[in-house]
TrEMBL record, chain A:
<keyword id="KW-1278">Translocase</keyword>
<dbReference type="InterPro" id="IPR008995">
    <property type="entry name" value="Mo/tungstate-bd_C_term_dom"/>
</dbReference>
<dbReference type="InterPro" id="IPR012340">
    <property type="entry name" value="NA-bd_OB-fold"/>
</dbReference>
<dbReference type="InterPro" id="IPR047641">
    <property type="entry name" value="ABC_transpr_MalK/UgpC-like"/>
</dbReference>
<keyword id="KW-0547">Nucleotide-binding</keyword>
<keyword id="KW-1003">Cell membrane</keyword>
<feature type="domain" description="ABC transporter">
    <location>
        <begin position="4"/>
        <end position="234"/>
    </location>
</feature>
<dbReference type="Pfam" id="PF08402">
    <property type="entry name" value="TOBE_2"/>
</dbReference>
<dbReference type="GO" id="GO:0005524">
    <property type="term" value="F:ATP binding"/>
</dbReference>
UniProtKB/TrEMBL annotation, chain B:
<feature type="domain" description="ABC transmembrane type-1">
    <location>
        <begin position="77"/>
        <end position="268"/>
    </location>
</feature>
<dbReference type="InterPro" id="IPR050901">
    <property type="entry name" value="BP-dep_ABC_trans_perm"/>
</dbReference>
<feature type="transmembrane region" description="Helical">
    <location>
        <begin position="247"/>
        <end position="268"/>
    </location>
</feature>
<keyword id="KW-0812">Transmembrane</keyword>
<dbReference type="InterPro" id="IPR000515">
    <property type="entry name" value="MetI-like"/>
</dbReference>
<keyword id="KW-0813">Transport</keyword>
<protein>
    <submittedName>
        <fullName>Carbohydrate ABC transporter permease</fullName>
    </submittedName>
</protein>
<feature type="transmembrane region" description="Helical">
    <location>
        <begin position="12"/>
        <end position="32"/>
    </location>
</feature>
<keyword id="KW-1133">Transmembrane helix</keyword>
Length: 358, 283
């Protein structure tokens, strides 16, 4: 068992409102990712769940029971810190054993549990070392082992992979997913890396300035962003946003272009809108009737693909193209738009027009 | 680093350092010499630097009274040990947890509180000794070891809080967070995980507190009068008041008075250096 429910968490540090009514519902056994830029309140949310942060308002329920006033120890959660927070004077073994010692397990149980978790994480040969004698990746594994050595209600992870180099990060991503599957435990995982979020999560909550913007599966937040901010935060290269308005059966751009109005658009004529199109839904090859005239602004070759920057008036479109594409800046070209996969946002509120039905 | 490369000092440096050393060390040397001279050599003109007969009589006089038995000076030394020791322990026991609290917890008007604590040190003892004397007379703490212990503790607690807060700030709070998630209470987390990392800082702070209490003169001379309670600084000063001054005894008792602090600082020197340079090194 391990459901975590946070309701209306609010917390301010001086004048900064770190959390402003954060509500999360983490189902038992899920890999729940809290994604957001730095300063969004991700870590504060996690610390509030852990009981390390005193809340101004809101409640935390664990397994359906109100745990808002409980001490961290009483909550029966395990946490991996971004800085790892390994005890410097203690060996890796003592670090991993610490949660069991705190809970007064017998030496036999402790030895067995440490052995089990250290072979799971391949750190058997590091157990007698102190944190100062470990590399970043090894410290990360020891920190993970300290959490995994017992079976808490849920595991809380605060950007555990951020301090690792890219190769190790990709490896650990796979490994963490594997561990999650094999334990079937609840993970609440905080990150600012959308690739981590999209590749590991069952559910993603996107946080900005202490507010939850959207909760959903990775596909949902990518395919159906609730607002303009989520659309531009998730996805790389970022989504292109063009100012426009609906007029009859056309969408007319602020820069003078015009496109057929998508069938699903419900906006009344004249309302200020933003058309959002992802790089993969744009093409520099002719296909279909919907197209925008522009000029080549720059090329970003990325190996497996090239991102073409196209200037339409004063706005830049990011277009995904074959790696073989060539061109010179200033060259005129036409960008095809897959309007069935495009998004429309209200320019004032930023909310998606399709959030309800589509 | 560059130390080995710069072993060879310039002549000027050597001269300046020598002058400095002579100026700083001569009084100490003279004190030690005087304590070892016979009385007629102490007053000899011209002064004798090397060719005098060494005697330990003055040191005997420090501890043994002329009629046999313990001297009043030795009682004062014992009083000093008790007063300085107890007040240092008290200041550390009270100050370290307070420093931890000020470092870790969000408190209302924390900066104002800390400033208030510091402000109690703004006034030199001479300024506050009269009101303290009057208050002590009311509550019957005049001429008692407890009175001195309390006032020294009160002076050392602010110092301990300020100095220790710096050391606690250096220890990441996440060790305690991690320990609490491991299942420890907040106090256990402090005691088992943070406190051991503070030992160098505590040693450095305690040495400074001890030196203050050990050397303190103004409160001691105003608040105590009887030989049974008096600490060493006023007792030694009292040797200089009469018609004749036994300089040999004054020098010998001064040497005995200076030694414990030197020895103590030497014993904890590793912690002292670690404590003073802590924070200079990035973790």
């Amino acid at each position: 068992m391990g459901t975590v429910t946070a309701h209306g968490l609010s917390k301010s540090f001086g004048k900064v409102q770190a959390l402003d009514g954060v509500t999360l519902d983490v189902p038992d056994g899920s890999f729940f990712v809290v994604l957001g830029p730095s300063g969004a309140g991700k870590t504060t949310t996690l610390r509030a769940i852990a009981g390390l942060e005193k809340l101004d308002a809101g409640s935390v329920h664990l397994d359906g029971r109100d745990a808002t006033g409980d001490t961290p120890a009483a909550r029966d959660l395990a946490m991996v810190f971004q800085s790892y927070a390994l005890y410097p004077r203690r060996t890796a073994y003592e670090n991993i054993a610490s949660p069991l010692r705190a809970r007064r397990c017998s030496p036999g149980e402790i030895a067995a549990a440490v052995e089990r978790v250290s072979s799971l994480l391949h750190i058997d040969r590091l157990l007698q070392r102190r944190p100062a004698q470990l590399s970043g990746g090894e410290m990360q594994r020891v920190a993970l082992a300290r959490a995994l050595v017992r079976s808490p209600r849920a595991f809380l992870m605060d950007e555990p992979l951020t301090n690792l180099d890219l190769k190790l990060r990709v490896e650990m991503r796979t490994e963490l997913t594997r561990i999650h599957r094999s334990l079937g435990a609840t993970f609440v995982y905080v990150t600012n890396d959308q690739v981590e979020a999209l590749s590991m999560a069952d559910q993603v909550a996107i946080l900005k300035e202490g507010r939850v913007q959207q909760v959903g599966t990775p596909t949902e937040v990518y395919e159906r962003p609730a607002n303009q901010w989520v659309a531009s935060f998730v996805g790389s290269p970022p989504i292109s946003l063009l100012a426009c308005r609906a007029e009859g059966d056309r969408l007319v751009g602020a820069e003078g272009w015009s496109l057929p109005r998508p069938r699903w658009t419900t906006a009344e004529d004249g309302r200020s809108l933003l058309l959002g199109v992802r790089a993969e839904d744009l093409s520099v090859e002719q296909r279909g009737a919907a197209s925008l005239p522009g000029e080549l602004y720059g090329l970003e070759p990325l190996g497996d693909r090239t991102v073409v920057d196209v200037r339409v008036g004063t706005e830049i479109l990011k277009v995904k193209a074959r790696p073989t594409v060539t061109g010179t800046p200033g060259e005129r070209l036409v960008v095809s738009v897959d309007l069935d996969r495009a998004h429309l946002f209200d320019a004032g509120t930023g909310l998606s027009l399709a959030a309800a039905g589509r | 680093m560059a130390v080995s490369a710069r072993r060879g000092r310039s002549a000027l440096e050597i001269v300046l350092l020598t002058v400095l050393a002579v100026v700083m060390l001569f009084p100490v040397l003279w004190m030690i010499e005087t304590s070892l001279k016979e009385n007629r050599d102490v007053y000899a003109v011209p002064a004798k630097f090397l060719d005098f007969k060494i005697t330990l009589d003055h040191y005997r006089d420090v501890f043994v009274s002329s009629g046999g038995g313990r001297s009043t000076l030795s009682t004062s030394f014992l009083n000093s040990v008790i007063v300085a020791g107890v007040s240092t322990v008290l200041a550390t026991v009270l100050g370290v947890p307070a420093a931890w609290a000020y470092s870790r917890f969000a408190l209302k008007a924390k900066k104002d509180q800390l400033f208030f604590i510091l402000s109690t040190r703004f006034m030199p003892p001479v300024v506050v000794v009269i009101p303290i004397f009057l208050m002590y007379r009311q509550v019957g703490l005049i001429d008692s070891a407890l009175g001195l212990i309390l006032i020294y503790t009160a002076f050392n607690v602010p110092f301990t809080i300020w100095m220790m807060k710096g050391f606690v700030d250096e220890v990441p709070a996440e060790y305690e967070d991690a320990a609490m998630l491991d299942g420890y209470t907040r106090l256990q987390a402090f005691r088992k995980f943070t406190l051991p990392l503070l030992v160098p800082g505590i040693a450095a702070t305690a040495v400074f507190a001890l030196i203050f209490s050990w050397n303190e003169f103004v409160f001691a001379i105003f608040l105590t009068s009887s030989d049974d309670v008096r600490t060493a600084p006023p007792a030694i000063a009292g040797l200089i008041g009469g018609t004749t001054v036994d300089w040999g005894l004054v020098a010998a008792s001064s040497v005995v008075f200076a030694l414990p602090v030197l020895v103590f600082a030497y014993l904890v020197r590793k912690h002292l250096v670690a404590g003073v340079t802590l924070g200079a090194v990035r973790r």
